[in-house]
Task: structure prediction
Amino acid sequence: MNAAIRIRPFAETDETAVIALWREAFPYDPPHRDPAHDIRRKTAYQPELFFVAELDRAVVGTAMAGYDGQRGWVYLVAVSGDHRRRGIGRALMRHVEDTLSSLGCPKLNLQIRGDNAEVVSFYQSLGYQIEERTSMGKLLITDHTTGDRLTTPETSAATLTELVRMLRKLRVVIDESALLDDDAWDRRVIATKQEIDDLLNRRRFDHP
Result:
């Protein structure tokens, strides 16, 4: 591993780089996952267990850990594509293990998608074993986002209603185009476009 690699706690200024890294490393994440909300939740609870690997002041890896007093868990272990196979993933896991051990954590668990044989082999090389368990989960919050807010069915329906209204208005403008002079046409189109832009900026659609 390059000696310049440094593992440190996540800082607020890392957010953009971390999200970009996760989008590269986990392109098939389910739509309910919003990385910005993952970061905010983690920085509100055990932020000291959220680590980044840094090389030449650039974030090239992440690992997010947790400890509930019985078991430790590690999530979102990722290394950028340009820096893989250089020992960064191993260093991140070693750092997580050492940190959790210092807290008295007796065992560290992780989950891997069943079709990800390469990652299974990676963790086996670190001493992890496949355990016969049934993994179950239940979503408590769905991170469909509009900017800094979580979208509720009510806000989604309101947004859709507004968009439909504006699209109908735009169609009327287009239908009337033959009856308007150039200046009037330009004014109507610009005004309608501004309404749509205002709605989008207010709702700030963000599809993870």
The mean pLDDT is 82. The first strand starts at residue 6 and ends at 9.
